[in-house]
Fold this sequence. Notes:
Blueprint: H1 36-47, H2 52-100
Amino acid sequence: MFEQPLTTTVPGPEVKIEHLIAKVPALEVPLETPTVEQIHANDEVFKHPSSDADNVAGVIGMVGGLLLLHDVAKDTLQDLDDLEGHMQREKRKTDDDKEEE
Length: 101
């Protein structure tokens, strides 16, 4: 009568995680397996670390780009101030012309 255990195992809830990125059809492009030559070329590219000269050249390029971006932004804001001043002068000029009439 009491030969069977009184406890039973209840299966847990099934959890399915679905990523939204997996639904994008543009990302589902089948990729070809690389050839042996491509694998060796890839290994050769990343085998040699970059030299200090390359790192210095990269830093100099970034600083030069930042300086150029700063100059462009400064000139743009200065032109904007000049435009606002020009618009105010034109408004005063038209207001003065209307008062003279």
